[in-house]
Design brief:
By secondary structure, the protein is of the alpha+beta class. It has 11 helices and 11 strands.
């Protein structure tokens, strides 16, 4: 019987690249037609198998959200859903107005959006609906703000969006680069494994995927005017909330945990929904080198002079560490 999440442990860089290839056994097959043009699978790379948690939902010392109070702007870790919602909205407001003050183009810009952003209470009220039982219901984040969330996320602002790419080699590059940097800095990595996640995004378009109090959406920000997003074939997932209740605690479960919990919404024939490809971190330099040979360098994923400079730093990782012994 198929599992919702499938793990694939690779033993060297060559094996990992073969495993994540769209021509390989894990992805080869009849391509499912997509109504929105969405890829069947999307990918994410990480230096270690940390929780698949968006930056805005992290807690502790990593709490990144900013909240405005009488004392000014400060970083907070909200304890309930409404505090979380308010902090996310205040953060995106500040991003929007600062970008606008510099004359930058913003997605979905309109007088309606500006009025909603300027009047905090209105944007909450305007997105409340009623359920069949007459109870108030909210959808967060609202549809009109998703492109702004995506733009902010891609430029380092914490949101509840999770970064993915349509290209498996791009995901492998980010995992390998970050893991190799840790080794270069002599950070303890023994026994750890870098990770490439593959999520079957096409299931989000299935008619029988019932939407409950929370559901996953794909967010694709416009590539025009965002060369990094275009080069990385970037896309995002977001867990959207149908209800906001003051007393509800913030749900900080990882994407994979939520996927397991909602697996009943999808037929077994679509499983696995998530594949997790891992590789011992001592092979991160080898993997980075193999990707370099494929033309997957920092200058390819970060167009411009900054990418060229980062590509030179990547080469320093090869020279400083060498390739691992087999």
């Amino acid at each position: 019987m198929a599992e919702v999440v499938e793990r694939v442990e690779c033993q060297d860089g060559e094996e990992l690249l073969a495993a994540i290839s769209l021509r390989g056994k894990y992805f080869r097959g009849r391509r499912r037609e997509s109504r929105s043009g969405m890829e069947r699978w999307i990918f994410r790379g990480q230096a270690q198998e940390w929780p698949l948690l968006p930056s805005a939902l992290r807690a502790g010392e990593h709490a990144p959200l900013m909240f405005h109070s009488r004392e000014g702007w400060a970083r907070i870790a909200p304890t309930n859903t409404v505090q979380q919602h308010n902090a996310e909205l205040f953060t995106i407001q500040k991003f929007f107005w600062e970008a606008d003050s510099q004359g930058l183009s913003l997605p979905n810009d309109s007088q309606l959006l500006r009025r909603q952003l300027a009047q905090f209470d209105m944007i909450v009220d305007d997105h409340f609906e009623e359920t069949a039982d007459g109870m108030p219901m909210a959808l967060w984040p609202p549809e009109v703000l998703l492109p702004t969330f995506a733009l902010a996320q891609h430029h380092g602002i914490p949101t509840r969006l999770l970064d993915w790419t349509r290209r498996p080699l791009v995901a492998a590059y980010f995992a390998a680069r970050d893991a190799a940097k840790d080794r270069f800095k002599n950070k303890p990595v023994e026994g750890t494994r870098l990770v490439v996640y593959a999520f079957k995004a096409s299931v989000l378009e299935l008619d029988y995927a019932e939407r409950r109090e929370r559901f996953t959406s794909i967010v694709a920000a416009p590539r025009h005017g965002n060369p990094n997003l275009h080069a990385q074939a970037g896309v995002f997932t977001v867990e959207r909330l149908q209800r906001l209740s003051i007393g509800d605690p913030v749900d900080r479960r990882g994407f994979d945990e939520q996927l397991r919990a909602s697996a009943g919404n999808y037929p077994n024939g679509e499983w696995p929904l998530l594949r997790i490809f891992t590789l011992p971190n001592r092979f991160s330099t080898e993997l980075l080198w193999l990707l370099y040979l494929e033309g997957l360098t920092a200058s390819a994923v970060f167009p411009g002079f900054n990418g060229v400079a980062e590509a030179l730093k990547d080469e320093e990782l090869f020279q400083g560490l060498g390739l691992p012994e087999r």
